[in-house]
Amino acid sequence: MEQRPNSEKIFKLSKQVIPGGVNSPVRAFKDAEITPLVLRSGKGAEITDVDENTYIDYCCSWGALALGHAHPEITESVIERVKLGSSFGTMTEEERDLATLLCSILPWMEKVRFVSSGTEAVMSAIRLARGYTGRTKIIKFNGNYHGHVDALLVQAGSGVMNLTTSSTSLGVPQAVIESTLSLPYNDVEYCREAIRKTEDLAAVILEPVAGNMGVVPASKEFLQMLREETQKKETLLIIDEVITGFRVSLQGAQGLYGITGDITVLGKIIGGGYPAAAFGGKKEIMDQLAPLGKVYQAGTLSGNPVAMVAGKKAVELLKREGQYEDLQRKTDFLLNEIEEFIKGLEAKICIQRVGSMFTFFFGSSSITGSHDLSKVNKEEYLEFFMYLFENGVYFPPSPFEACFVSLAHTQEQLVKTKNLILQFLSKKYALCLA
Ligand SMILES: *Cc1c(COP(=O)(O)O)cnc(C)c1O
After folding, report:
1. Does the beta carbon of 363 lie inside 6 Å of ligand 1?
2. What is the pTM of this model?
3. What pLDDT is attached to residue 2?
4. CA 356, CA 402: separation in Å to the nearest integer?
5. Is residue 147 lining ligand 1, measured as CB closer than 6 Å?
6. pLDDT by residue (tens digit) across 106-148?
7. Does residue 241 have its Cβ closer than 6 Å to ligand 1?
8. Could you tell me the distance, in angstroms and rounded to a whole number, from the CA of residue 147 to the centre of ligand 1?
9. Beta strand residue intervals within 200-270, DSSP E
């Protein structure tokens, strides 16, 4: 086992002044029960911790870094912008530039507003949907994550109309979540009924490829049903593409599946590694926002010019010919052979993936929603995680997160990762070989 004395020391001191030592819970490596990673630097797909250990990174800042760490062109545009001042709280032209770029790539977004995090974007999108429709209720899906917005920290309900909702967090008033219904993901008929029967429904929000319970794609049928039923009720469909936007294709999941929402939520990749997120849609909806309309929404650092130039550079680089084909090629190279190998094992393991996002689920051969997650063998995943971690490959320290391939991953790094995974699987499941 590698030595990480500096990491241990920093973690110990951080715990005295920051709850759990971390500013976002997953960083604590609680499931893995080891000292968390304390990183100092990253270059391409390689990260280095404060003890000089290096790892090949498949978390990529939870999906934000499609081009790898410290991409030279992004870094350079940031430095140039920082020299001119970093925050004004006034209009800057960089906001116009990124907004124009995003709206040209995603034509279902006529206007867009920037904020600083995915959570903030979702929270604002919900307020906008309620303001625009004059209705209150929100439908979400079990196992979908939309940031830590009060109204969306809701678990499963137990029946269509008499849902006994309960929050997944303390501190969320019952009154807030009473307006939220959480339904089983991918259950077409059940959800169709529920949407039809729900009165006062302002919006349905979903992750078109769930990436926060591990990768679980929505079926095309499910997406189609949501589009049809929301249209019939004149309810807004909010597509949360914070993780899938500029990830599963240049036009995200909406481009990939050909089904578009009324409000699109973006984050992660569009900040190029800096804090930026956005929500957008048709003019008629977006113009309800203050100062034009009566839905209030604001932010001191919203549209921050440093984040805007980073995001613009990232999106421009991704927009070049062949980038998504390249990402797919890299991901296929990493996973195809492993998938073949898994087929020959008796063990229940599956890889679920869309584009360059993927998850290894141990203990199950298919996951279609959070109702399947109890089948997942957490211990086996954590053993897998540790094996990779100790050999210099960083996968998420929890079984219910997505892995990401970036454009920066090199052939050599992919070969090393693939071989390690094959080694782990053959050692562990050799006895199960058919
Ligand atoms: C990450 C994520 C969010 C929250 O974004 P933050 O920037 O972490 O607040 C919301 N929705 C989805 C689908 C996400 O993956």
Report:
1. no
2. 0.96
3. 59
4. 10
5. yes
6. 999 999 999 999 999 999 999 999 999 999 999 999 999 999 9
7. no
8. 5
9. 201-206, 209-210, 216-217, 236-240, 263-266
